[in-house]
Specification:
- The protein is an alpha/beta fold and about 475 residues long.
- It folds into two domains: about 1-150, Leucine Aminopeptidase, subunit E, domain 1 (3-Layer(aba) Sandwich), CATH 3.40.220.10; about 175-480, 3-Layer(aba) Sandwich (Aminopeptidase).
- Helix content is about 35%, strand content about 20%.
- The chain contains 16 helices and 17 strands.
- α2 runs parallel beside α3 (about 110-120), α5 (about 150-175) runs antiparallel to α10 and α13 (about 380-390) packs across α16.
- It is elongated, with a radius of gyration of 24 Å.
Length: about 475
């Protein structure tokens, strides 16, 4: 979909359909055909109630009037939701070119929300559809954003973010027999080839073992599919600020290993690579936006399956930093992968750390699909990450770290256990485990198990959500002072 901003009046654009938002207590700002749109509002067919839709024809175009509710309550997320509602109606009426007439005096984030909601709502995963009609259904080809002032920067930025988020969603939605760890590595290499200041490397099982990544290697030993340690750097000449490491868990399928998961939910475990996918999507957007920031991305990717060599409950492994770990639950594998990836990032000079992972079912119970859980060892860094979540609309809720929780991950026969036996405070236990590998580097851990897929939002109801892409880009922007 082509996305562009214009200062032309909507009626003068090549759009066949124009969307006009209506706030409570406001009239139509720029009417056509002697008041055709206000007449629809006055008649009660159009309403300012949030998401209410009405369609009419005037001045040679279709017009969709959508309620935006209370102006004081309007946010970028409400813009995304309204845009998704308009996109759905536009699709029903065969729109090819849609123009959004922005309400007056919107902020850039709110203006960008209309773009993000439209582009995200347009996402469809059809790679494995054989029905030609399903693969070639009519789609919106162009989105035009009209305002009195130039919105080029905000509109272009929002389009980059939404496309990167959709790229992550496509990675998430691919089945595990297609998106193997090495296929994810190929995506990273292609990404690097497409951007001047991005470099990438992909290492396999032998290199992972040679690096002393015994925790990561233990998870990977249960599959014949080659694992991948994916490392990217983005360092443009004008980069400033600390080296920020984005660390993602990318388990492309998680059976739980010998601590096997229930069969009824296992088909969704292709989404266990969502954190790594978000890191790659964020790097894509950061590079396209040419942010003057230094980024290191580390993605640990493997399957967690079962063969004759699979790790067993009770095994003891040695992580890259020398700590030994009792594997008391093979379904607590993500923290084993991340532990070595965090150590790897620190060894490469990371000055700030964010890891993102679908780590625990416990965070779903605690927070559902509204917030991701966040933990941090540094107040200033937490503030930066939390602010990025607020700005991006990918909201975070802080959960505690505490010495009593840290004691729970001490091992009986080794330094650490990957899963305390009583299962209490499971998201916190996972975070405290990772805390041991972050050391004194400012670090935040995002547990996105509740928001990674089937988000239930109008712009991402089912399948991969791409959660984390916008947040990580907002964090990079803040570090760059942009």
């Amino acid at each position: 979909m082509l996305v562009r901003a214009t200062v032309e009046a909507p009626v003068d654009t090549p759009a066949d359909t124009v969307a006009v938002g209506i706030f409570e207590g406001k009239r139509i700002p720029h009417d056509v055909d002697g008041g055709a749109l206000q007449a629809l509002l006055d008649a009660g067919e159009a309403k300012p109630a949030f998401k209410h839709l009405a369609v009419t024809h005037a001045a040679g175009k279709r017009w969709i009037l959508v309620g935006l509710g209370d102006r004081d309550a309007f946010t970028a997320e409400r813009a995304r939701v309204a845009a998704a509602a308009v996109h759905a109606r536009s699709k029903e009426i065969g729109t090819a070119v849609l123009c959004w007439e922005l309400p007056h005096r919107l902020g850039d984030d709110e203006a960008g929300g209309f773009v993000e909601g439209t582009v995200l709502a347009s996402y469809r995963f059809t790679a494995f559809k054989t029905d030609d009609a399903a693969r070639t259904a009519p789609t919106l080809t162009e989105l035009i954003v009209s305002d009195h002032e130039s919105r080029v920067v905000a509109v272009d930025r929002a389009a980059v973010l939404a496309r990167a988020q959709n790229a992550t969603r496509e990675l998430q939605d691919r089945p595990a027999n297609d998106l193997t760890p090495m296929a994810l590595g190929e995506f990273a290499l292609t990404l690097a080839d497409a951007h001047e200041h991005v470099t990438a490397s992909v290492e396999g099982r032998a290199e992972i073992v040679a690096r002393g990544m015994g925790a990561f290697a233990a998870v990977a030993q249960g599959t014949d599919v080659e694992p991948a340690l994916i490392t990217l750097r983005y360092e443009p000449p004008e980069a400033r600020g600390p080296l920020v490491a984005l660390v993602g868990k990318a388990v492309t399928h998680d059976t739980g290993g010998l601590s096997i998961k229930p069969a009824g939910s296992m088909h969704r475990m292709k989404f266990d690579m969502s954190g790594g996918g978000a890191v790659l999507g964020a790097v894509q957007a950061i590079a396209q936006l040419a942010l003057p920031v230094r980024i290191l991305a580390v993605v640990g990717s493997t399957e967690n399956t079962i063969n004759g060599s699979a790790m067993k409950p009770g095994d003891i492994v040695t992580a890259m930093n020398g700590l030994t770990v009792e594997v008391d639950n093979t379904d607590a594998e993500g923290r084993l992968v991340l532990a070595d990836c965090l150590t790897h990032a620190r060894a490469l000079g990371a000055e700030r750390l964010v890891d993102i992972a679908t780590l625990t079912g416990g965070v779903v119970t605690a927070l559902g699909s509204t917030y991701a859980g966040v933990f941090a060892n540094d107040e200033e860094w937490f503030g930066a990450v939390d602010a990025a979540g607020a700005r991006s609309g990918e909201r975070l809720w802080r959960l505690p770290l505490d010495p009593e929780y840290a004691d729970r991950v001490k091992g009986r026969y080794a330094d650490l256990t990957n899963s305390p036996e009583d299962k209490k405070a499971h998201p916190i236990s996972g975070a405290e485990f990772l805390h041991r590998f972050a050391g004194d580097t400012p670090w935040a851990h995002l547990d996105i198990a509740g928001v990674g897929w089937d988000l239930g939002k109008p712009w991402a109801a089912k399948g991969g959500s791409g959660f984390g892409v916008r947040l990580l880009v907002a964090l990079a922007q803040a570090q760059a002072g942009a």
